[in-house]
Amino acid sequence: MWHRRNARLVIARSRARKGLVLGVAASACLALAACSSSSSGGSSGSSSAPSSNSGPTNVGLVLDWTWQPYHVAFMYGIAHGIYKAHGINLTLTQGQGSSTTATLVGQGKYQFGFADTSTAVLSASKGVPIKDVLVIQQRSAFATECWKSAHVSSPAQLKGHSVIMIPSESTAQIWPAYLAVNHLSAGSIPVVNASVSDKVTLFVAHKADCMAGLLGEDTLEASLQNSGIGTPMAWADNGIKLFGYSIITSDSVIQNDPTLVRQFVAATVDSWRTTCGNQAAAVALFAKEYPQLSKSAADKKYNTANLSTTCSQLQPPTGITSSPLGASSSAQWDNTVATLRKYAGLTGSQPASAYYTNAFVPSS
What we know:
The protein contains 13 helices and ten strands. The protein is an alpha/beta fold.
């Protein structure tokens, strides 16, 4: 899997955010849609009425992982009737990693999925019949974070400084691309290997000068634990123009119920815009729904900062012209596919246009 948060909250919060290491099996609970949020209402899975019916259509959305603050946009849209206003009775189901989400959507277990874009592309290239219908995060979360005492404020200044990462995680897979685009040699930056359980702990203990991680997640965890850790450097601002999260659906749903896809995409755009415009209220809703993830002062700081970072990632990376929650950039898609083909094992010769469509994105 692409990434998991450190062991302190590995059961409650960890997730496979960017799953370059694929093949995570779905649990029986997930496969049977028995883990749906009790607060979301409706029934999960693919048993929906035709979208032309007079009442709301029952729709199931399977998430990338267990409940996180960045999922609150869907919860907010349900709680405030946004999905209902678009003719949708939405149920949320926890996930087991973006690759599993892609598989379940491709199998027709859920009409829609919330998944890391790169993982969805890799799954589609291996025959999973899915397509990206809405890029939510136009900026990936990859970042390098260093101790302030290292005096590193640009990629060039990483030379000679050790960087901690997990060999199988997403950052390690894209690390060679980050080095190449910033004209750095692998030999000039010592890598300290870590595991899911000890990556942040080792970094906070200053076992390395820097850490390759994700904005709003492990980089946030580290900075909350020690004020001596500096501001993360987003890879999106330094040449890595990959997407973050997207909405995926199956080729079958696109073909058989395009009206439903259009309704769901429009509702999701409205929900995310409303949530990011009312972040304090959204965080309060998350705390109400999942108090076990909002108990301590550190939890509350994390939840607030996580959502703030998530909303900032709606903006396109430097040099890309596109509107947040609007049609995604064909140039950025070309770059994403080229990067995955060169560094992440994407096979086949399909063009980027085979993996996404902007046809369902509202024009305004």
